[in-house]
Amino acid sequence: MHLYRTHTCGELRKSDDGRTARVSGWVYRKRDHGSLLFIDLRDHYGVTQVVVRPDRSFFEEAQKLKPESVITVTGRVEPRTPDTVNSSLATGEIEVVADTLVVESVADTLPLQVAGEEDGPEDLRLRYRFLDLRRERMHKNVLMRSRLVADLRRRMTAHGFAEFQTPILTCSSPEGARDYLVPSRVHPGKFYALPQAPQLFKQLLMISGFDRYFQIAPCFRDEDARADRSPGEFYQLDIEMSFVTQDDVFAVVEDVISGVFGDFSDWTCDKPPFRRLAWREAMEKYGSDKPDLRNPIVMCDVTDIFRGSEFKAFAAAVDGGATVRAIPVTGVGVADKPRSFYDKLVEFAKEAGGKGLAYLVWQGDSVKGPIAKYIDQARMASIVERCAARAGDAVFFVCDKPKDASRISGDIRTKLGRDLELLEPNTYRFCWVVDFPMYEFDEEERRVVFSHNPFSMPQGGMSALTGKDPLDVLAYQYDIVCNGVELSSGAIRNHSPEIMLKAFEIAGYTREEVEEKFSFLLNAFRLGAPPHGGIAPGVDRMVMLLAQESNIREIIAFPMNQRAQDLMMGAPSAVSERQLRELHIRLNLPKEKAATTLVAPKV
């Protein structure tokens, strides 16, 4: 018989009745009935109930066992009585009556409870992450991530993609987020950078003649944490394809993602082809370039209705270039809400950066609200028609600069959808946001700048760059969005040196600057580059959505906290003077340095 187990704790069934089995695992729960001691023994695979009888020599030792001690039990498999069957366990029809019990490891008093669903303080959970990961929910999340990565690899290979690994130590990027820098010992004063993404390497692979590339790629960015973004590092399904159009990229990604979401969840999931929204349409209707399509509220532009109206606050703002967005809430009886409901929304709009929030409420045959008296009959009829307003409905209005109006109204739409419980339940809604503007006007710098990815191919190529107002030029850039979460941005790349130089010229870069910063890429383009494009959906965000978690740290085995600290390992940490000397580094710390020293727990 094996030293530790003949079966896992999730394996034994009623058909094993009478068999002698050996199982090993952690003491999950104990129930001492005096005449009998019941131990729920847990391992990676499941839970098995062990029964210890009082005539056994190890009975008192078993009684004293603390939770999470590790034991090995050998005994006879017996069926449970009908009234004690646990239908929630795969092993719930049997129990193991212990003949021997060996204590492999004694656990001290736990700093964090493993049994139960209650979360402890986050700092404590991260400091004892190895303990936190024993909890059923966390264990399932990390396992799901593993299975999802394996499934992604299988699906990409089936589509004819080859997996390549790109360098981790590379050069610092002149664009994008902050780099993590790595000092070079053999090249004093010079630094490597950890890759923010394999973007340039995957483009170079296409130029090298590899047609379809993918990688479960680690990416490193010195960014602040958010609920959907882990500080430091993350993983993405990095994809690049040669001789493709935007539609070719969409076809592969839709098939892979719809398959993954369909296999890993029983929620309703959109099937290909996914809905496509032009960027301007997304901003006008949803106030966001990552719209949550589970929310039925669709906004509209009513700037023309308020132009020249008696509502002077809006009319004057419109004359000054402002936009008015209407947020209709229809068919849910919102008109019956108390005044406090509307007052709280006004305060929310102010907290979001707005000057306030106007609204109209249709109650029976009358229209009420703070601005109702300023709206004449013809304008009111136009609002009713455009917003499809009826008795019981309300329409909210945001007036501001176009960019701010979109952001503020989008935030209000999201709040209304959640507060009124309008979101379509148990559903994944996907969409592509396409036709991003290539450029935007920077109010602070008073010049035209790149709106998003400067390396995207402009729609219309060189003729668009030379013949159009830069603010009217669109890019072959696209985002894939699920339930209001951006899974990834992608683009058809600009593979022409001359188009690239012209695109940067419009954004204020000289030819010499571009040649200096991106010489390796331009030189590669000049030696024969295929049209190519790609995308990189975030693995962590996919798992977060599928696990129905609101924070990305819940699906990463060993995440950092919001301050980019690893509380378990004590990183970042100080290093020795000898190490600094070897790297030719002298510290110049700020005078008011926070006295924060991370110490790994004693284990």
Break the fold down into its secondary structure elements and pairings.
Blueprint: E1 20-32, E2 37-43, E3 46-52, H1 59-64, E4 70-79, E5 94-105, H2 122-127, H3 129-132, H4 136-158, E6 162-163, E7 181-183, E8 191-193, H5 199-207, E9 212-221, E10 232-242, H6 246-264, E11 268-269, E12 275-278, H7 279-286, E13 300-301, H8 303-306, H9 312-319, E14 323-329, H10 339-351, E15 358-363, E16 366-368, H11 377-387, E17 394-400, H12 402-419, E18 427-428, E19 430-434, E20 439-442, E21 447-450, H13 461-467, E22 477-482, E23 485-492, H14 497-506, H15 511-517, H16 519-525, E24 532-535, H17 539-546, H18 577-582
Parallel strand pairs: 3-5, 6-9, 11-18, 12-19
Antiparallel strand pairs: 1-2, 1-4, 2-3, 4-5, 7-8, 9-10, 10-24, 13-14, 14-17, 15-16, 15-17, 19-22, 20-21, 22-23, 23-24
Helix pairs in contact: 4-6, 4-17, 13-14
Strand content: 15-25%
Distance between the termini: 32 Å
Spatial extent as radius of gyration: 30 Å
Structural class of the helices, strands and pairings? alpha+beta
Mind summarizing the main beta sheet?
8 strands, mixed
Strand order of the largest sheet: 6-9-10-24-23-22-19-12
Name the poorly predicted regions.
none
Oligomer: single chain
Helix content: 25-40%
**Number of helical elements:** 18
In total, how many beta strands? 24
* Average pLDDT number: 95
Using the alpha-carbon principal axes, give the shape.
Answer: globular
Report what the structure shows.
- With 603 residues, this protein is α+β, with helices and mostly antiparallel strands.
- 29% of the residues lie in helices and 24% in strands.
- It has 18 helices and 24 strands.
- It has an eight-stranded mixed β-sheet, sandwiched between helices.
- A hairpin with a 7-residue loop joins strand 7 (181-183) and strand 8 (191-193).
- The longest helix has 23 residues, at 136-158.
- It is globular, with a radius of gyration of 30 Å.
- The relative contact order is 0.10.
- The model has no long low-confidence stretch (mean pLDDT 95).
